[in-house]
Amino acid sequence: MTPPPRKRVLSGMRPTGKLHLGNYMGALDNWVRMQNEYECFFTVVDWHALTTDYADTSCVKENSLEVATDWLAAGLDPEKCVMFIQSHVPAHAELHLLLSMITPLGWLERVPTYKEQRENIKDKDLGTYGFLGYPVLQAADILIYKAGVVPVGEDQVAHIELAREIARRFNGFYGKRGDVFPEPQSLLTKAPKLPGTDGRKMSKSYGNTIMLTDPEPVVRQKLKTMVTDPARVRRSDPGNPDVCPVGDLHKIFSSKETMAKVYEGCRSAGIGCIECKSWAADSLVQLLVPMQERRKKFEQNPRLAWDILEAGTQKARTVAGETMKDVRAAMGMSLDYERPEGSFGK
Ligand code: TRP
Ligand code: SF4
Known about the structure:
The chain contains 14 helices and five strands. By secondary structure, it is mainly alpha-helical.
């Protein structure tokens, strides 16, 4: 018996360069699990990077390759999933154009991230056509693979909702002979609150990250300077792991046994923060070492990751090309010569 077809998944990540633990725990660890269960497409969305960083594109390609290399290091397996760079599959742009024709401006102006970013990002002009259309491009990324499931963080849910609305509208206009696009569902990634070294959310812009590529001594050094429960000033003061960023790291990365020692020792002032932090570092190193091992062969031969992306591009282009045939046919704009049914040519 042939197994039932697996549900198709698409997700994307912007080419920010090397990834940190927050990127891993928010998304990548989930993708690594999903590749075993679903038919997965993962794409580095380099065109999305241009919606904000259009003025200087000199690092886009290198950053895309860095991200893909971290994916491979984290355990994405090209035998199990399709990995590619968005701009290498130009059909995304073609579908984006067609979807842009039917997307009402009001839908885009209402997207929460649009308003937020226009207000918060002051160092560049985001009053561009491309930036407003960001979610339309994202919808094209998803719909061109007819993906049913899109694993994303909380901040992206509104974008997936919009993709659903665009799919519905497209089907309504052109789906006379059946829906062209399924409506994608977001699969919310339960992202634990991952603190950076300063106790705020781990983020590249705060400079408080632990990188997937940080060698053990760097991880240990970063942990040493990490902030702790402010109530624990002296070694003899009891503390509370529930209000300590190091305690949060333990909750995410440490074993139950270690956790128990942390709670006991911290609350009774039986352990010092230095010892507690060294245990947290142990847990992180245990996670990172296998990734760094896997990364070595890609570092020694950078061509390797590029070849994997090229192979992924071929597969993605095939699927995207099939969808574009359906799209063109549904819109009555296929490439085949057909005798028009109307008045002329009779
Ligand atoms: N907008 C997403 C982000 O900022 C990235 C993205 C682009 C994406 N296209 C996508 C995510 C398609 C999921 C599906 O994280
Ligand atoms: Fe934080 Fe650990 Fe120090 Fe307690 S002992 S305050 S959990 S670092």
